[in-house]
Design goal:
By secondary structure, this protein is mainly alpha-helical. The protein contains 7 helices and 3 strands. The protein binds zinc ion. The site of zinc ion has 5 residues, from helix 3 and helix 6.
Amino acid sequence: MPSPELRAALESARIPVPFRLETYLEEVERIRDRRLHTHDLPIEATSVVSGLWIATRKADHIFVAPGAVGVLRINIVLHEVSHMLLNHGKVGDVEEVLSRLMRPAVGAIGAVAARTRYEAREEREAEALATLILMRANEWPSEGDHGLRIIEQTFGYGGRYPV
Ligand SMILES: [Zn+2]
């Protein structure tokens, strides 16, 4: 069973059925009341990380390795969103990290610094939450989501999924 923290984070943002990453990111923007931008990770940083979340005072920025497509890209973005939903990391020196990351010569160094802001426990939690979101995206809500199920049936998604 997921921990109460993971369950709360999972329930905090409504997962669209059928799943569309863009729709889910709009939901994350809405509940955080902040803009969320996705960018290609600078090529200098891709040997060190595949994804990165940077929170500035005004917005969230997710950087994804430009070579990552399809399910891999979704997985990377959901991992970074999971850090956001679990309130990991701190808004502090991130703007400095961002500026360093954007300077090609020291890109990799900035990425390492950003990555190690997280504890191993936080990495495990983010990985677990990303997996839970993907599982939820691929199945009917199995418990406690009766209202959601009715809404989805009302709007015509029900026929595409086994009941
Ligand atoms: Zn992480």
